[in-house]
Design brief:
Elements (H helix, E strand, L loop, with lengths): L3 H13 L7 H8 L2 H34 L7 E6 L5 H14 L10 E7 L5 H10 L5 E5 H9 L17 E6 L19 E7 L1 H5 L7 H9 L10 E5 L6 H11 L3
Parallel strand pairs: 1-2, 1-3
Antiparallel strand pairs: 3-6, 4-5
Helix pairs in contact: 2-3
Keywords: Membrane, Transmembrane, Transmembrane helix
Amino acid sequence: MTAPKEHRSKAVDALASSRVRTGGRIAVLQSLSGKKRWSYFVDHFLILIIAIITICCLLIWLIMHILNPAPGPKLYVALVDHPIESAEADEMSSQAAMTLHMKADDNSGLVVDDGFDCSRDGLPKLQTMLSAGTVDVIIAPKSTFARLASYGYMSDLSQIFPDKQFGKQALLPGPTDDGQDDDAEASMNKGPVKPYGLMCDSIQNQRWQPHQKKKAKSTDLQRPNSASSDQAVIGLAVNSPHMHDAARFAKFACGR
């Protein structure tokens, strides 16, 4: 003897496949009643409806993320080839965030990243981020900074910081105008000389730390050659999306 459940299922299938029912599955569903209608709905419509709802939710989620992307850092500072120690970089980040009224975090505040070592993968990383327009400020030893300026990565500071009011300007050759980008090393030191950076002793002497001003003065006496190739130079990235805040950070780093 066939079980009632199996008998009901066979009856529903027979009814759905009957030639008398010419209106399709929806017509079959409308013609059924009670438990037969629900059983037919579960067998033929429920999975499809769940799949459609899931796809719609995913599409809405993707559209919302495309139209409203997660906010990036308000200011991204790249420390290239370790112009200062990691501990000092952390202190600079917290002090600058306090002075500039920003949060020191990766999502919507100030980021000071010292992970740019050109002897490893620091330069490709920097180039990728510059192409994406995510780097605002670059601090590097003078020799490294001159190389970056010759590649065309730095902004001309003559209009941003006129009259050398925030430190001694680093006059360096920029990119050449002949379009010979295939041999960047050969074109170094051949471009027009412009003030692409500021040579601020404050970066290494930490005059941006209010509680270390006295210590900074004593350190200045130990650095008679302020124009050495190891001196840190600060500049603004050419594609910075936050040029105003980048200039504010440069003033802070120069102890102003």
